[in-house]
Amino acid sequence: MKQVSIPGGTQAFAASRSRDFVVIDGGDRYWKRLTERANMAYSQGEISLARGIYGDALAEGERLFAAALEKPCHYPAPVIYNVSCHNLAELENGEGNHQEAEGLYRRAYERLLEAARSSSSPMAMRVACVQHLKQALAALAHHLRLRGRDDGVIDRAVQEAYGTAFAVFRAARHAEQAGGDCPHCPIIPS
Q1: Predicted confidence pLDDT, tens digits, the chain (190 residues)
Q2: SS3 for 11?
Q3: Distance from the first to the final alpha carbon of the chain
Q4: Per-domain residue ranges for the chain?
Q5: Does residue 46 sit in helix, strand or coil?
Q6: What are the phi and psi torsion angles at 36 (to 5°)?
Q7: Domain 18-178 has CATH 3.40.109.10
Q8: 5: left (phi over 0), alpha (psi -120 to 50) or beta
Q9: Rounded to whole angstroms, how far apart are CA atoms 139 and 22?
Q10: Considering only Cβ atoms within 10 Å of each terminal Cβ, which end of the chain, N or C, has fewer?
Q11: Cα(42)–Cα(35) distance, rounded to whole angstroms?
Q12: Reduced to 3 states, what is the DSSP secondary structure of residue 7?
């Protein structure tokens, strides 16, 4: 572990992370520790420190999300990614950085939407992304309304999410009924 000095003490950080971390450490433990540390720093008014640690948690969330797209996992990758983006967005909002916050809310929404739509994503991951898309959409819509955005922008996002959810659940049902062996359509079972 590398020791890093910060205001108020010294923290230990892992020098490097293996891609096999998903299997070795159960996946989300490192992310949880980062998030807890960032929450503590934020609650103590250490905004700059919290921002950095939330950024590290988001990077870990991105890594876990990408790993979950490659192989099945036992951690809630869409939740982790969504929470990571929203934690950082809420911090930025609180600091008056509304454009940065909007970018983070959009990032969560668009990443979940993209993974849900992709026929190359494992079906279980597509379904999980749709299930958590509503939280990403709600946070984005709330932010956009507070910032005075046109309702048409929000309505388009809602329709996009609704259409994606319908398509994914229909594909999941079809894959279940076909038992994963469906030569007449492009559904890729997980």
Answers
A1: 333 333 333 333 333 343 443 343 456 899 999 999 999 999 999 999 999 999 999 999 999 999 999 887 778 999 999 999 999 999 999 999 999 999 999 999 999 999 999 989 998 999 999 999 999 999 999 999 999 888 888 899 999 999 988 988 888 887 777 765 555 555 444 3
A2: strand
A3: 37
A4: 18-178
A5: coil
A6: -60, -45
A7: no
A8: beta
A9: 28
A10: N
A11: 10
A12: coil
- What is the residue type of 72? P
The residues near 74 (Cβ < 8 Å, ≥ 6 apart) are 26, 27
Tokens of residue 129, six digits: 């992304």
| Structure-token match 């509503």, residue found | 134
Confidence (pLDDT) at 177: 75
Cα–Cα distance list, 46 to 10, 72, 142, 177 (Å): 14, 37, 26, 53
159: exposed, middle or buried (Cβ count in 10 Å: 0-12, 13-18, 19+): exposed
